[in-house]
């Protein structure tokens, strides 16, 4: 039951394990659990020297009766996890009190066939979550946007979902992959998603060394994928402090291959795939058993995270990536009409990134009637209205140009004379045309 981030661990750890009565832990159970944990670490942990340190430390603590006063499983787990992390910090390593997860782990280990009832249940859950893909969108300026929260195990249905998402953005001039809420998953799904952004010639991008088997598996981009490839499209990846493990791998791979611009925050810093081991009927130990070895850097992001190319608060990362993409596309376009359309969108994104604040005094000067149009000041907001049509909120792009809520193709500009007095209203359209109305009050 191994995965890049311990997908099953993350999923099952959300189960209401503590809704049942918590059992007390006896002295003999503590002794046996510590012996088992120490053995599992020595046999399987990705760094043998660190495994010996952690195993020796918890056994020493037990011998010195550090856990003698602990009588409940949750308190025992908390103490052991604290000592393990104190010896060697590893966010993938963890002991859990979770009898329900243990039952699921045993079921998982005993049922591996794709036609089994357990496999079908996992597939059903994957479908309900759309295999992690939550949003695919066409953004202004012909930018494709894909948001997904998890790298699910590969199945034909999962492959088709990826292919559908990629097909939707196939005509985009730039693509944004949003991994800000992605906690990781399986490396084979990373391999599939990554392959869409390179040509069909496979190349080695990452390896995984597995400690228990003492083997190394090399990962190459895929020669065949379903649907279109986009090897030339401008690519941006959004990250946050939550972005973890497999999501970090995709970000790191694309960054080291100089294929994408990473925008956002430093990621969580977990590069070690995990395996779940049963300690007893109540405890399960998640052990990092492998490590990623990037083909370019010969190392990984463990403990450091992936450093963004363009730092940004996670909440602004999408706007920042949009701005970068629009600016680059605008500079590449030669046709005046295309450049003007991109500049139109660029100004809107810039105004969201850096909102313009107008004083109430300035807003009051703008309020009034302009032919059939009215600008109303209500509270601290300006609204636009034509005759008796619904009022639409105005958002300033500059001090005198405004976006009109719900009308992306239309903006208004307040025109002043040399003395600064407001004289007319200019209606601006995305196609470059305009209309003017003199102020009538």
Structure summarized in a few sentences:
This protein has 441 residues and is α+β, with helices and mostly antiparallel strands. It has helices at residues 7-12, 27-44, 48-63, 73-87, 99-110, 117-128, 156-168, 187-195, 246-256, 317-332, 336-353, 360-366, and strands spanning 2-3, 94-97, 133-139, 143-148, 174-178, 204-210, 215-220, 234-239, 261-264, 274-278, 283-288, 290-294, 310-311, 368-370, 373-378, 381-386, 392-396, 401-404, 407-416, 422-429, 434-438. A hairpin with a 2-residue loop joins β18 and β19 (407-416).
Q: How is this structure best described in words?
A:
- The longest helix is centred in the first third of the chain and has 18 residues, at 27-44.
- It is built from 12 helices and 21 strands.
- Helix 2 runs antiparallel to helix 3 (48-63), helix 3 (48-63) crosses helix 4 (73-87) and helix 10 (317-332) runs antiparallel to helix 11.
- It folds into 3 domains: 2-102; 109-327, 2-enoyl-CoA Hydratase, Chain A, domain 1, CATH 3.90.226; 360-438.
- By secondary structure, it is of the alpha+beta class.
- It has an 8-stranded antiparallel beta sheet, with helices on one face.
- The radius of gyration is 28 Å and the shape is elongated.
- A hairpin with a 2-residue loop joins strand 18 and strand 19.
